[in-house]
């Protein structure tokens, strides 16, 4: 009895397993998309998810897409679902209004998902799950959003004179790595000089001992898996300048400038000295010449002097003066009467002026 019971139990387990396998494989999800999708930022993507049902199921439809966490730890973010004959697509904020099913009725066997205007943060693993009780199946699609290279900037470092070494640089500040740089010459021989070395990782083209043959237009192109961009630079090799002539000209110019400066200083000092000498001469002349007296003071001084002389010649004082003795002359010799020294002095008549006996008058 116990042996028969064990056999019955084993057969029951096998039957249940076969029934589960039949129910599980009655719903099969497939995809034609590669395991990893690489798309450029700003583009759109379609993640394929189709399914088939081999047996009739009575349960309701439940189709959903979710974004798995990067480390596969923690809950997933539900993006869009089809349940109860309705579509719900407002679950995940970063993808709101950018996701939708490709088919209006995904229960027809196509649950493919479309995402528009991809962003770099949309990178991740997306899971398509189709469930119709008791059947259930799912698959994962990995999406990698790549950024196109930004427009590069071309530049030249080094002296452009012949015989020197220069470097052409090309740099793009944005873009998903790895970025690849290439250089080409678009004029002349349209081939890079033999003495040039290209670093495709840094975008530097080094050229040794340049000559006039190196002159021309060079173009740099930067690219990655999803796009490319370019820039150009015009390089012109020049002959070396005559440094000795430049130095000599500079020295002569400095000397001429100093000479003109010295002449200007000399003229200024001489002019200042002449002005100082003129001022000293004028000052000495003013000190030597006495100030002129006024006409009225001169007249008063002369009048006072004459009055003093007249006062001293009054009759009372006349006797003190020595008298000159003259020899007598006959009256008949000249017909002139001798004048006596004792005669009274002539009188003066005052008027507009004072007249003296000697005939002088003072106004």
In brief:
The chain is of the alpha+beta class. The chain has helices spanning 2-24, 243-288, 295-312, 315-318, 331-334; strands at 27-30, 36-40, 45-47, 50-53, 61-68, 77-83, 86-88, 99-101, 113-115, 124-132, 135-146, 153-157, 166-171, 180-185, 196-199, 204-207, 216-223, 228-235, 354-355, 361-362.
Please outline the helices and strands.
Elements: H1 2-24, E1 27-30, E2 36-40, E3 45-47, E4 50-53, E5 61-68, E6 77-83, E7 86-88, E8 99-101, E9 113-115, E10 124-132, E11 135-146, E12 153-157, E13 166-171, E14 180-185, E15 196-199, E16 204-207, E17 216-223, E18 228-235, H2 243-288, H3 295-312, H4 315-318, H5 331-334, E19 354-355, E20 361-362
Parallel strand pairs: 2-11
Antiparallel strand pairs: 1-4, 3-9, 5-6, 5-10, 6-7, 8-9, 10-11, 12-13, 13-16, 14-17, 15-16, 17-18, 19-20
Q: Can you describe what's shown?
A:
There is one protein chain. It is built from five helices and 20 strands. The protein has 363 residues and is α+β, with helices and mostly antiparallel strands. The strands form six sheets. The chain has a six-stranded mixed beta sheet with strand order 2-11-10-5-6-7, with no helix packed on it. The longest helix has 46 residues, at 243-288.
What is the ordering of alpha helices and beta strands?
Answer: HEEEEEEEEEEEEEEEEEEHHHHEE
Report Rg: 66 Å
Shape: elongated
Strand order in space, largest sheet: 2-11-10-5-6-7
Tell me the distance between the termini: 192 Å
Which range best describes the helical content: under 10%, 10-25%, 25-40%, 40-55%, 55-70% or over 70%?
25-40%
The total count of strands amounts to 20
What's the number of helices?
Answer: 5
Structural class: alpha+beta
The low-pLDDT segments are 1-24, 326-363
């Amino acid at each position: 009895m116990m042996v028969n019971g064990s056999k019955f139990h084993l057969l029951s387990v096998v039957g249940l397993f076969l029934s589960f396998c039949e129910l599980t494989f009655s719903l099969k999800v497939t995809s034609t998309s590669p395991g990893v999708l690489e798309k450029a930022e700003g583009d759109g993507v379609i993640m394929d998810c189709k399914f088939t049902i081999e047996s009739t199921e009575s349960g309701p439809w439940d189709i959903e897409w979710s974004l798995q966490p990067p480390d596969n730890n923690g809950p997933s973010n539900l993006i869009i679902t089809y349940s109860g004959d309705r579509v719900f697509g407002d679950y995940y904020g970063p993808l709101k209004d950018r996701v939708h099913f490709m088919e209006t009725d995904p229960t027809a066997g196509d649950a493919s998902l479309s995402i528009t205007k991809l962003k770099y943060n949309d990178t991740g693993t997306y899971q398509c799950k189709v469930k119709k009780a008791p059947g259930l199946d799912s698959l994962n699609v990995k999406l990698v959003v790549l950024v196109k290279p930004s427009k590069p900037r071309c530049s030249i470092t080094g002296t452009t004179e012949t015989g020197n070494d220069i470097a052409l640089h090309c740099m793009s500040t944005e873009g998903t790595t790895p970025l690849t740089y290439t250089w080409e010459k678009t004029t002349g021989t349209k081939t890079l000089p033999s003495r040039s070395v290209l670093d495709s990782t840094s975008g530097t083209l080094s050229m040794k001992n340049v000559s006039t043959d190196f002159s021309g237009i060079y173009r740099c192109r930067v690219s990655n898996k999803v796009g490319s961009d370019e820039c150009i630079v015009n390089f012109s090799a020049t002959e070396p300048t005559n440094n000795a002539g430049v130095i000599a000209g500079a020295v002569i110019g400095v000397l001429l400038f100093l000479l003109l400066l010295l002449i200007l200083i000399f003229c200024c000092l001489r002019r200042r000295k002449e002005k100082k000498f003129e001022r000293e001469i004028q000052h000495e002349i003013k000190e030597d010449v006495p100030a002129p007296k006024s006409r009225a003071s001169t007249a008063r001084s002369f009048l006072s002097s004459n009055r003093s002389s007249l006062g001293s010649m009054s009759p009372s004082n006349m006797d003190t003066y020595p008298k000159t003795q003259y020899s007598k002359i006959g009256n008949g010799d000249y017909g002139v009467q001798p004048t006596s020294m004792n005669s009274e002095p002539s009188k003066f008549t005052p008027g507009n002026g004072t007249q003296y006996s000697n005939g002088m008058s003072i106004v």
